[in-house]
Write a structure and sequence with these properties.
Chain lengths: ~80, ~180
């Protein structure tokens, strides 16, 4: 019997009993709505792909300046190509 | 009141109301098991729904001579959980930034310590402890759900108990 394993573990039992689980209301009735779950998935927060770069002040500045510099360079390239 | 097994047989004969009653009686223990295993509310809710969807599809596979409805449902749920966790690991390795951050729910009260101690257990031992302690299942049922030999259930439970006692020892003496 597995129950015998716990018989003399009163402190452990006391602690394990604290881990109660509240049941969410969403589960009160069986609803199978895949669309809602897909929307939840899309709306769930995702990891920031630039997290490591933006965590430093240099990285944060670079993330703001690099796109701006690219835009300026592209604009200049277009201006020169039109002028020529 | 009808037992789960009677309800299942009635459902197999085509009574859909029996399915609703089965859901009513078994969604709580299944959710508790999944939540204690993962500490993730949304994941556990999804798996409960998926489990009962699978039960509808596989209702004729259930044989009352082979075990209880509870262990049959737990078996489906545990398999779905492992598939989902494995799939998530794969996605995480290919596209680390596309995987949603799962809100791991840890309480702030005194159950935090035990919640963390259980979360720290190796997956193989965690399932055994949860099913044996919180759901009071027989060794044979646990073996069937986790798809392990019956002898392994007891040895894993021993290891898990030892680990839990070590993890929770400090916390207990700090209180006392």
């Amino acid at each position: 019997m597995l129950k015998d394993e716990w018989k003399n573990e009163h402190e452990l039992q006391q602690q394990l009993d604290r881990f109660d689980v509240p049941i969410p209301e969403k589960l009160a009735t069986y609803k199978k709505n895949r669309w809602d779950r897909f929307i939840t998935y899309l709306g769930a927060p995702a990891k920031d792909p630039f997290e490591q770069i933006s965590s430093t002040s240099f990285g944060y500045t670079a993330l703001r300046i690099v796109p701006l510099a690219c835009a300026v360079i592209l604009a200049l390239v277009q201006l020169f190509s039109v002028a020529m | 009141m009808m037992t789960n097994e009677h309800l299942m047989i009635t459902y197999q004969e085509g009574d859909n109301e029996a399915f609703n009653q089965l859901y009513h009686q078994l969604h709580r223990p299944l959710y508790s098991f999944l939540f204690r295993y993962t500490n993730e509310e949304q994941l556990s809710i999804d798996i409960v729904q998926d489990t009962f969807e699978q039960l509808q599809k596989k209702r004729h596979d259930f044989d009352v001579a082979k075990g209880t409805v509870q262990s049959y449902i737990f078996q489906i749920g545990y398999r779905l959980l492992l598939n989902k966790l494995n799939r998530r690991k794969k996605w995480r390795s290919f596209f680390p930034f596309l995987v949603p951050i799962q809100a791991t729910t840890f309480s702030t009260d005194d159950k935090l310590a035990v919640q963390q101690a259980i979360a720290k257990l190796p997956e193989k031992q965690r399932g055994v402890v949860l099913l044996a302690y919180y759901h009071d299942l027989q060794q044979e049922d646990i073996a069937k759900i986790l798809e392990i030999p019956v002898g392994t259930v007891k040895s894993r439970l021993h290891q898990a108990l030892k680990r839990l006692k070590e993890e929770l020892k400090e916390d207990f003496y700090a209180e006392g």
